[in-house]
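so my prof wants the structure for this chain in the tokens format not the other one, which i didnt know existed until like an hour ago. anyway here's the sequence
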Amino acid sequence: MIIVAMFLLPFIINYIYSIDLHISFFKHSYERNQLLLFYSSFLSVLATLFLGEVSVYQALQNNKKSKEIDELKTEIANCYLSMIENNDRPQFSINLSSMGGLYSNLGITIQNVSKVIASEIELIKFTITYDGNSKNYNVD
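here's what i got, hopefully its the right format
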């Protein structure tokens, strides 16, 4: 409703000046273009205030999200530091998930079972034990 009134008011001002009313209320010293210029300036002020309010709101929301991200980064860094200080190492559970005949084309599932965060896992060596026989493999 307010938006419709904002767009219709210039037409109303223009219409009032185009008809000849013999009422003293409408007799004043302002010209049509002066009133329209005042109205457009007034709308510009309102738009500026509205956009300023929107930018302040967005800045506050952005600040809030930045603080949350900083707290999360600090928490992760503290977790890594405690891991280094306590010499904790991640522990994994490795399960056979698929295989072909005679244990060929083995598929395994590796799951982190410790509280230590593990990333960029690099396989160095592994051992396969089958029927009491063990064989070590080095990965290059």
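also thought this was worth mentioning. The chain has two helices and four strands.
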